[in-house]
Amino acid sequence: MLIGVTKLERILVPLDHSGFEGIVDVAVAIARGAGATLTLLHVYEPPNAAIGLVPGATVGGETAAAHDAGEALLAKAAERGGNLVVERRLELASPASRTIVEEAGRGKYDLIVMGTHARRGVARLVLGSTAEKVLREAPCPVTAVHLPPGS
């Protein structure tokens, strides 16, 4: 049981396209044990306006492609939930960390289960860490699932 949490009823699971299977499997195991529901969340960011400089590419086309890829990701992830109640949410926003924290508060989630690559040094400085920002700002406990390199 998590410290300060008397009952887990709602679990938020933010996903991107890397290593989502392991994250969902951990979240499903926790949800089954606690009798909780899952909300899978994928936040995709608006494309850079400079995409219009690429022949054949448009902001609208790239946004639609990111939306479709997000829907496919959530559908695959939801299948791993078996008979659990699984809600899917897809958001167009930036930065993802802010959207995750806001959703966690708005949805009154008891736990966030998310992946982390545990980058260090320059990679962490350059890329930032969505998981780290969520850990610092989330209104509820966060379980970080370490993703292996390359996932």
Structure description:
This protein is an alpha/beta fold. Helices cover 41% and strands 21% of the residues. It has a single domain, classed as HUPs (Rossmann fold), CATH 3.40.50. The chain has a 5-stranded parallel sheet with strand order 3-2-1-4-5, with helices on both faces. Strand 1, helix 1 and strand 2 form a beta-alpha-beta unit. Helix 3 packs parallel to helix 5. The chain is globular.
| Annotated CATH topology | Rossmann fold
Supply the CATH architecture.
Answer: 3-Layer(aba) Sandwich
SSE sequence, one letter per element: EHEHEHEHHE
Counting helices, strands and paired strands, the structural category is alpha/beta
CATH class: Alpha Beta
Please summarize what this structure is.
Helix content is 41%, strand content 21%. It has 151 residues and is of the alpha/beta class.
Keywords summarizing the entry:
single chain; 151 residues; alpha/beta; Rossmann fold; five-stranded parallel beta sheet
List the helices and strands and how they pair.
Blueprint (H helix, E strand, L loop, with lengths): L9 E6 L4 H15 L2 E8 L14 H21 L6 E7 L3 H11 L4 E6 L4 H7 L2 H8 L4 E5 L5
Parallel strand pairs: 1-2, 1-4, 2-3, 4-5
Helix pairs in contact: 3-5
